[in-house]
Structures are given as structure tokens and as C-alpha cells.
Design brief:
The complex is a heterodimer.
Chain A (H helix, E strand, L loop, with lengths): L3 H14 L1 H4 L20 E13 L4 H4 L8 E13 L4 E8 L7 E8 L3 E15 L3 E2 L8 E2 L17 H4 L1 E2 L2 E15 L4 E22 L3 E23 L3 E14 L3 E5 L10 E5 L4 E15 L2 E13 L29 E15 L2 E14 L5 E2 L2 E2 L3 E2 L3 E2 L5 E13 L4 E14 L6 E16 L2 E14 L24 E13 L4 E13 L6 E16 L6 E19 L3 E22 L3 E18 L7 E15 L4 E15 L14 E2 L8 E14 L1
Parallel strand pairs in A: 7-13, 11-35
Antiparallel strand pairs in A: 1-2, 1-36, 2-3, 3-4, 4-5, 5-9, 6-8, 9-10, 10-11, 11-12, 12-15, 13-14, 15-16, 16-17, 17-18, 18-23, 19-22, 20-21, 23-24, 24-25, 25-26, 26-27, 27-28, 28-29, 29-30, 30-31, 31-32, 32-33, 33-34, 34-36
Chain B lengths: L2 H16 L7 H8 L30 H5 L3 H8 L18 H12 L11 H4 L20 H9 L3 H6 L35 H6 L14 H5 L22 H4 L52
Classes of the chains: A mainly beta, B mainly alpha.
Chain lengths: 693, 300
């Protein structure tokens, strides 16, 4: 006789596993779901932020990407406006600092569930050197000339008219992007999309060019780039899979084909006027298709394939602007008039979940860069001084293939185990190594949901083999047969990563990460011998709905590389390059009563670079960036709120290589005398924010 | 009745509630999750998810329960003063498994761009959609360039540090964001890149480097990251090392390419031309390739 207790227990167990308990809920009758308490924000809403700002000093490094390149005041404006109506038509508009060169404006509108149109305008200023000066006239054009009465010499010390001829040059680039996007959903499950972008980049950059190793000049080269991109796509989403196809095109044009300049030094071989080619116009298109199919609930296939082409057909410059060589015929007027580089990309993936908590993924990738540029015999005139013997151009091609298999198991109590194998192989043409392949194995262990602590440890090892190294023979300076280019060389690599995330009560969270990786090229007699990276990150923060919220973080990274060389095939040497970075930051937000809130943010980023060759190290490359910002918000209720922002940023740097050089500091190099950036800048903004709804 | 009798009577009731929808839909939810409440969720009405005109949007179907699952038990427990979560709740630390959360989102969003989610690094690391996305905010933070970086940096803190290095992409002030180069949903491309290769990704903004050139520089044609540290570097412009050492990793020809340069050369007029200013790039400035007939040595 079964006791009543056991009987009830049995009934309980049966009910738990019964179809009744496991049955999914029947779809509800939503016609009675009036959503009467739901409030859609119909009409217009948003905020306009406007107010004066003031910058204490002019510093181009400070203004880089930010746009505050002048001391003094500006009208700061930010905001967004949003519209929604009962028919589901919407319009969103937002803007950032329209008065600055780093302005951004975006517009997005359409009909919910039907179509969306997006329009965006972005400007990005980039300043690459403060204090730049040059004696050249015609900056901004493709022809640079020297002022009348210019005195040439063999070295910069002898350029007698240099000081009087120097004029400031603005080394800055301005990128402007106009983006357009359209999304449309016709009869579901089809979706269509069109994306287009025009990107223009204009300004002046530095181009170094000279004659042999005797002398060279840093030239203010014009940048007048335009890139147009169009991407058309269609997506189909079915119950068990989806499919997508896309066609993309990209057209790059350069407003300047070349840069010509008067030789400021004593001409060698009579080359008084020199000319370099700038980036040629090119175009490319890509056709892509992809999709995924769920064959069974536990089995899924996905893949993507693309073919494309890149072409370049710019008319060639002559071999040389030196009159001694101007009669030399070219083998063709342009790069055959039609150059194709065919690329084929494909990827496939199998995801199999054969058992609960266990999944396998197999992945394959293939890429083929088939450069069909014909190989032709050329007779280049090296730096307008001498003509080299016949030289063949090398249109590099390669095929890359990647195979990977990984398995993951989610055991109980939050444990996760994973392991994987992979092989990457690449076949190259016209290079010293025809084929290399790298085998990788990794294991991973994770633990989560134990006292809200999540830990992850990953260990990875890889070994790359390569076919026999066959040094290429080039005209000109003979190469060292012991050199092994690191991307072609045999290599052993290991990596370890440890991550920890700990979510505590009261809104506390901690996170920490440690990583190390080592690459060993021990089979390379010359070239990169080894490289290593060590990194640590630690962060802590507390966020609460009321009261003080704060965060703190610190990061450290060290990158080392050992390079082996040989002087004139005789004297061995080694050089160690080491970079260290330390960053740390604090942030705190504190409500002050019912209307006020204060926020303080500060960080410091320090870097140091050392290069030690043959025991005689270069000076250190030091940078130190510090920033402190205080923000006070006053909110008296709608519609106005106020904001005061005080920011101070300081940057100190010592760059022995690129900073603090006068145009004539180097005997054989006429530089532009760019300063090593140092600044201390304060910014104040008082903003009123008008909110409307 | 004995304890077990009570248990046996309650179980069918509990089993029924666990899989039943509410009777009022969102109206029942808004009572606790309305505007001004500690767990307010009504900002969703300003988004596409809250649309009633879009037949595929949750609020045109089963409203809150379209994503969170049948809520009858949750409502019953709340009415008794108990704490009980809906069948599906979302977030990095939610008790609903990431795979279940993702299946909810991918039920509608497994289309272009999300097709490569399965087997991707984030999916394998069990990072659910809601770890990054905010469905209940008027504007999802990942669509703001700076807030997106903060989101990514929660796990990828080293990239925050990289953006503060002396040479970096324009991330710090929001001119670019992580999604300018990466698609975090698509594991079919290496390193979750937008395009199939590193170079194709770089060429979307730097098409002037695409070529093809008459004289190519092999590493530049193969992989930009052989010379560039794209997230941030101590060596402008985003180089892994300074020239001449950068170049001497691969070049050791006779004469100046193979010489050991040191501090002693800074004042030597015969040597400092190869070290100071831009090093090798003082002369060999066409390192990405040259289309000049005489550009075989990347001088022109």
C-alpha cells in the first residue's frame, strides 16, 4: 500500500512532467487588449541646447578631430527633434556643433513598418602638424615653385634664402561625408535597401621626395580626394532561413594626379624640376550573396559569397621630368588601359547543437586576390638621377583559406568549456614564400552565475610553417639572403586571456582583464625575431538610481619587439622596440538636491616608447595627456535646463624624431619644422537646454 | 490536508499560470512599469518596437508579452506582493539564458547583418542582444557614437585605452564608432569586420590606397595591419613601430637599409637623414604603392 504522502508526491511529479504543464499557452485574444494606458509620444518633442563656449588657447593637437582650432568664443549648439504621428510616420533630426568643423547632422524619417530614409552629414577635421613652414609657393596645387632668387645648395645649411622664404603651411585635412540610406519593406518578408555615400577629403599633407640618398624634401602635397559608394541590397526572411544579396560599387577620384616641385637642393644629373605621382583614380564593385538555413532545430547552415573587381586606368607620367630622360618611351600609356584585380570571398558555417548545452561550429573562409595586371619590362629612372636596367613590375596575388572547428559545452552550475582547432593557409605569387599555413589550437573555460562572478580563461597556441624561403632578386641594392619577412616567416605564437566580471549588490561591479601574447620567429636569421604584448585592465563602478554614482579604471599595456639586422652582410646587430602605456580615469555623478547635479570626469594617458639599438638607446618618446571636466546641471523643470561645463586638458610630449626640428635641422632633409605638440587648454561652455513636447 | 495534498492541488494551477497570457496585455504592465516608476519601460512607445502601425512590431501583436512571454504568473505573483520575473527577461545578468533571449530577438531580426550571429564571438561568449541594446529607451545607446563605445568598452576596455594613445582614429569625439569598422553581429568575417578582409574594411574610408598600383608594396596589398595598429599607437600614423625599425623588420639590403641606427646618429649628418623626421619615409613616401613608371623603389 502506497502511503498518502508518497501518492501525493507521485501525483505532483506526474503533473510537473505532464503535457498539461508543458503545453505552450494558447494565443491570447488581443482584441480586448486596448492598451488604454499606453501613451505614444505623438507630435514633436526634443531639445535644443545652445550657449556660448570659449577656448583659452589655440592648439592643433587639441583640436584634432574635435574642431576647436581657434582660441576665443563660439556658439555651441546641439540637439534633437523627433516627430511621430498616429499613422506611424516619424521624423528624427539631431545635430552636433554645427558651428565647428567637426559638425554632424543626421535626419531619419519614414513610415513605421514600411520605409525609412536616412540622411547624414559628417565633417572630421584632422590636424597633422602645428608650426609647419615651407618655402614653396603654390601650396594647395600640383605645382610647387620656389621664390625668385632662391639659392640652392647641397645641404640645408647652405640654403641661404630659406629663412626669409619660409611661410606657414596648414597641415590639415577635412573629411566631409554625405550619407543617404533607404530601407523599404514591401510585401513581407522582402526588404530592400540602398546606401550611398560621397566622401571628400581635402587639405594638405606631407610627401617626402628627393634624389637618391643625397637630399630630400618634405613637400606640402595637395589632398583632393573624392570617394562615391553605392550599395544595393535585398533581404528575404523566411521561417527557416533567410537570404540576402547585394551589389556595391566604389569610385575614387583624385583632383590632383601628380605633384611637381622645384628642386631646392643643387640638382643632381640636371634634375631641376621633379615630379611624383599621387594616388590614381580607381573603382571597384562587389556582388555578394548570403544566407542561412535552419535544416533542423539543432542544425543550421549559413554562408556568404562575393565576387568583385578593382580597376585602375590612370594615364602614366613620363619616366622622369629630368630633360635628360624625357624622351624615354613608356611600354604603355597607362596600366594596359584596363586592370583587373579579381577577388573572391566565400564563407560557410555549420552550427550543430546535437545535445543540450553542447554545440559544434565548423567554419570555412576563402579569399582570392587575383591580380591580372600584366607583367611588363620597365626602365625606371630612380629619383630622376639614373635609369635602372629592365625591371619587371610585380602584381601580387594571393589566396587565403581558413578552416575552423570549435566545440562548446555548457555544464551545470554556470560552467562553460570550449575548444577549437583552426588552420589558416595562404598562397602567394611573386613573393619569397609561396605557401604558408598556420595551425591553431585553443581551449577556454568559463564560470558564471556563481555569486554573480563570471570568469573566463582562454589559452591559444599557433604554429606557422612556410615553404622554403627564396629571396627575390631585385635590381639595385642587393638584398640580404638571411632576411625573413615576418609575415612570410615561420612563427610560433601563444596567447592567454583572463577576464573577470563581478556584479555585486548595491549596484557595484568589478571587472578585470589580463592578457599576454608572444610571437617567436626563432627560425628567422634576420628580421623580426620576437614580439610580445602584455596588458592589464581593471575597472570598478557603482551605479545607483539615487545618490552618488562613480567609476574608476586603470589600464596598462606593454608591447615589445626584437629585430635582428646585419650591416652590409657582415656586422650583426639587434634592436629592441618597447612601448608602454598607462591610462587611468575617474568619474562621479552626484545629485545635489532636487534641481542640481554635478559630474566630474578625469583621465590620464601616458605613453613611452623606447628604441635601443646596439646598446645606444634613442631618447624616450614620451606623451602625457590629462583631462579634467566638471559639469553642473540645473533642472528647474520644463522647459529649460542649464549646464555649465568646465574642461581642462593638458598634453606634453617629447618626440625626438618628429618634433622640434627646424626646416634646416637635418643636413639632407628640408623638413617643415613641425612642433612636438604641447598644450594646456581650457574650455568653458554655458548651455541652455530648451525641451519641448 | 497534508503538505503534499496542498502541493498536488497547487501544481496544476501553477502550471496553468506559467504558460498563460495576461488578460489585459500591456495595460496590466504599465501599472508598474509606467512613466516615473522605478522600472519604467514606456519609452518603448517612442520606438519602432512600440509601433501599432507596423504589423510585425511587438505592440501590434502580443505587446509586452510578445518578447517577455506569457505574463499571467508574473502578474499573479506581483499581486500577492511577491517578486517574480516574466518568463523571458533580458540583460547581461538576466536569469534567462542568453540563447533564449537571442531567440526572442532573432525571431524578427535574423536578417541581413544578423545572419552570421550563430557561432560568432559574441554568441559563443553568451553576450545576449540586450547586453548592448536598449529596447526600452527612446534612443538605443548603440546608435550614438560615444555611447556605443562606452558599451563596447564595458568588455573591451583596452580599446578605450587605445583611443587615448598619441595616434588614433577619430573615436574619442564620436566622429567614428566601433561599428564604423566592425559588425558585432556577424561572425562570418574575421574579427567581426564589416567587410570580408582587413584591407576591404580600410578601403571604405581610404579608397586611395586600394590601387591596384603599377608598383605594389606587398605587405600593404596583403594586410594593412602588418604595419598599422589600427586601434591606437604610439607611432603616427597608427604604425606598429617607428621607421626605420618598422621597415628593417623586412628589409636588410646593403647600404642604408641594413645599418644599425642609434642615438649616436642623431647628430651625424650622414646618418640622421635615415633616422630623424620620417625616417625611411623621408624618401620612400609611396609605401602603399606607386603608379609612377619610375616608382619601383617607392620614391616617386
Amino acid at each position: 500500500m502506497i502511503s498518502s504522502a508518497r501518492l501525493y508526491a507521485l501525483l505532483s511529479g506526474l503533473l510537473l512532467v505532464s503535457p498539461l504543464a508543458a503545453q505552450q499557452a494558447a494565443p491570447p485574444d488581443t482584441s480586448r487588449w486596448a492598451c488604454g494606458f499606453c501613451v505614444w509620444p505623438l507630435g514633436w518633442r526634443g531639445n535644443f541646447d545652445i550657449g556660448p563656449g570659449w577656448v583659452s588657447d589655440e592648439a592643433l593637437k587639441f583640436a584634432d578631430y574635435r574642431g576647436l582650432d581657434e582660441a576665443g568664443g563660439w556658439l555651441s549648439m546641439n540637439g534633437e527633434a523627433r516627430y511621430l504621428d498616429e499613422a506611424g510616420r516619424f521624423l528624427d533630426l539631431w545635430w552636433t556643433e554645427p558651428a565647428l568643423d567637426a559638425r554632424r547632422i543626421a535626419l531619419r524619417g519614414g513610415q513605421q513598418g514600411a520605409h525609412t530614409v536616412q540622411l547624414g552629414w559628417t565633417e572630421i577635421p584632422h590636424y597633422t602638424g602645428q608650426g609647419a613652414r615651407s618655402p614653396f609657393l603654390g601650396v594647395g596645387s600640383g605645382e610647387l615653385s620656389l621664390p625668385a632668387g632662391w639659392q640652392s645648395a647641397d645641404t640645408t645649411a647652405g640654403l641661404g634664402s630659406l629663412d626669409s622664404a619660409l611661410r606657414p603651411v596648414a597641415l590639415e585635412l577635412q573629411r566631409r561625408n554625405l550619407d543617404l540610406g533607404v530601407r523599404a519593406r514591401t510585401a513581407s518578408p522582402w526588404r530592400w535597401r540602398v546606401d550611398a555615400q560621397r566622401s571628400e577629403r581635402k587639405g594638405t599633407r606631407v610627401l617626402g621626395a628627393g634624389q637618391i640618398t643625397f637630399n630630400t624634401s618634405h613637400l606640402p602635397a595637395p589632398v583632393d580626394h573624392r570617394t562615391d559608394r553605392v550599395d544595393l541590397g535585398v533581404d528575404y526572411q523566411g521561417e527557416r532561413g533567410h537570404f540576402n544579396a547585394g551589389l556595391g560599387g566604389s569610385w575614387f577620384d583624385n583632383g590632383q594626379q601628380s605633384l611637381a616641385w622645384d628642386n631646392p637642393f643643387t640638382p643632381i644629373a640636371g634634375a631641376e624640376h621633379l615630379r611624383a605621382a599621387l594616388e590614381p583614380a580607381n573603382r571597384a564593385w562587389t556582388l555578394r550573396m548570403g544566407g542561412a538555413w535552419r535544416a533542423r532545430p539543432e542544425l543550421r547552415l549559413s554562408g556568404q559569397a562575393g565576387i568583385g573587381e578593382a580597376r585602375q586606368d590612370e594615364t602614366f607620367l613620363p619616366y622622369s621630368s629630368n630633360p635628360e630622360f624625357e624622351e624615354q618611351p613608356l611600354p604603355r600609356p597607362s596600366l594596359t588601359g584596363k586592370i583587373e584585380a579579381l577577388s573572391l570571398n566565400a564563407a560557410g558555417q555549420l552550427d550543430w547543437r546535437p545535445a543540450r548545452g553542447f554545440d559544434l561550429t565548423a567554419r570555412w573562409r576563402f579569399e582570392d586576390r587575383d591580380n591580372r595586371t600584366p607583367v611588363t619590362e620597365w626602365f625606371p629612372v630612380i629619383t630622376d638621377v639614373y635609369q635602372r636596367e629592365a625591371t619587371l613590375n610585380r602584381p601580387y596575388s594571393f589566396q587565403r583559406e581558413q578552416l575552423g572547428l570549435q566545440g562548446r559545452y555548457r555544464a551545470g552550475a554556470g560552467w562553460r568549456l570550449g575548444a577549437g582547432l583552426g588552420r589558416k593557409s595562404i598562397e602567394r605569387s611573386l613573393q619569397s614564400v609561396h605557401r604558408s599555413s598556420e595551425d591553431t589550437v585553443w581551449v577556454e573555460m568559463g564560470m558564471g552565475q556563481w555569486a554573480m562572478l563570471d570568469l573566463r580563461l582562454r589559452l591559444e597556441a599557433a604554429d606557422r610553417d612556410a615553404s622554403p624561403y627564396q629571396p627575390l632578386v631585385d635590381p639595385g641594392l642587393p638584398g640580404n639572403p638571411l632576411m625573413r619577412k615576418f609575415n612570410l616567416a615561420e612563427r610560433e605564437r601563444s596567447q592567454a586571456v583572463l577576464d573577470a566580471d563581478w556584479s555585486l549588490a548595491q549596484g557595484w561591479s568589478l571587472n578585470a582583464s589580463a592578457r599576454c601574447s608572444d610571437e617567436d620567429y626563432r627560425r628567422s636569421p634576420l628580421g623580426l625575431q620576437s614580439s610580445s604584448t602584455r596588458g592589464l585592465n581593471f575597472g570598478i563602478n557603482q551605479s545607483r538610481e539615487q545618490g552618488l554614482a562613480w567609476l574608476a579604471w586603470v589600464g596598462y599595456e606593454q608591447i615589445e619587439a626584437l629585430i635582428a639586422g646585419q650591416e652590409n652582410f657582415m656586422l650583426d646587430w639587434r634592436a629592441l622596440s618597447e612601448d608602454e602605456f598607462i591610462t587611468w580615469g575617474l568619474g562621479a555623478t552626484l545629485p545635489l538636491g532636487s534641481h542640481w547635479q554635478a559630474r566630474l570626469d578625469g583621465f590620464e594617458a601616458r605613453s613611452q616608447g623606447k628604441i635601443d639599438t646596439a646598446g645606444d638607446p634613442f631618447p624616450a618618446l614620451d606623451t602625457r595627456l590629462r583631462n579634467l571636466a566638471l559639469r553642473l546641471d540645473y533642472d528647474s523643470g520644463r522647459p529649460w535646463a542649464w549646464q555649465l561645463v568646465l574642461e581642462h586638458e593638458r598634453y606634453d610630449s617629447q618626440d625626438w624624431q618628429q618634433g622640434g626640428l627646424a626646416p634646416d635641422s637635418i643636413a639632407a632633409v628640408l623638413t617643415m619644422g613641425v612642433d612636438s605638440p604641447d598644450y594646456s587648454v581650457s574650455v568653458v561652455r554655458v548651455m541652455g537646454s530648451y525641451r519641448f513636447r | 490536508m497534508t503538505y503534499f495534498a496542498w502541493l498536488a492541488c497547487l501544481l496544476p494551477v501553477a502550471a496553468t499560470y506559467a504558460s498563460e497570457f495576461s488578460s489585459q496585455g500591456a495595460d496590466a504592465c504599465v501599472i508598474c512599469h509606467g512613466a516615473g516608476m522605478p522600472q519604467a519601460a514606456v519609452a518603448i512607445f517612442a520606438t519602432a518596437h512600440g509601433s501599432r502601425q507596423d504589423a510585425e512590431a511587438p505592440f501590434a501583436q502580443q505587446q509586452c508579452e510578445q518578447c517577455h512571454g506569457p505574463a499571467a504568473e508574473h502578474l499573479a505573483a506581483v499581486s500577492r506582493g511577491e517578486t517574480a520575473l516574466p518568463p523571458v527577461n533580458f540583460g547581461a545578468h538576466a536569469n534567462t539564458p542568453a540563447a533564449v533571449q537571442d531567440a526572442t530577438c532573432l525571431g524578427c531580426h535574423e536578417d541581413h547583418g544578423r545572419g552570421g550571429w550563430m557561432g560568432s564571438a559574441h554568441e559563443a561568449a553568451e553576450v545576449p542582444c540586450a547586453a548592448c541594446h536598449q529596447v526600452h529607451a527612446e534612443r538605443d545607446r548603440v546608435f550614438d557614437a560615444l555611447a556605443q563605445q562606452e558599451t563596447c568598452n564595458t568588455c573591451h576596455a583596452r580599446r578605450r585605452d587605445d583611443s587615448l594613445k598619441p595616434s588614433s582614429h577619430p573615436l574619442r569625439f564620436g566622429s567614428m564608432s566601433c561599428s564604423s569598422c566592425h559588425d558585432p553581429h556577424n561572425g562570418q568575417h574575421e574579427s567581426l569586420l564589416l567587410e570580408a578582409s582587413v584591407n576591404d574594411t580600410c578601403f571604405t574610408c581610404h579608397a586611395e590606397k586600394r590601387g591596384p598600383f603599377l608598383w605594389e608594396h606587398a605587405p600593404a596589398a596583403e594586410d594593412c595591419s602588418l604595419c598599422h595598429q589600427v586601434h591606437g599607437s604610439n607611432h603616427p600614423p597608427l604604425l606598429t613601430r617607428r621607421a626605420p625599425l618598422l621597415c628593417q623588420q623586412c628589409h636588410a639590403a646593403a647600404d642604408h637599409p641594413g645599418l644599425a641606427y642609434s642615438d649616436a646618429d642623431l647628430d651625424d649628418p650622414q646618418a640622421n637623414r635615415f633616422v630623424l623626421a620620417r625616417g625611411c619615409l623621408n624618401c620612400h613616401s609611396q609605401v602603399h604603392g606607386s603608379n609612377h613608371p619610375s616608382g619601383a623603389t617607392l620614391h616617386r
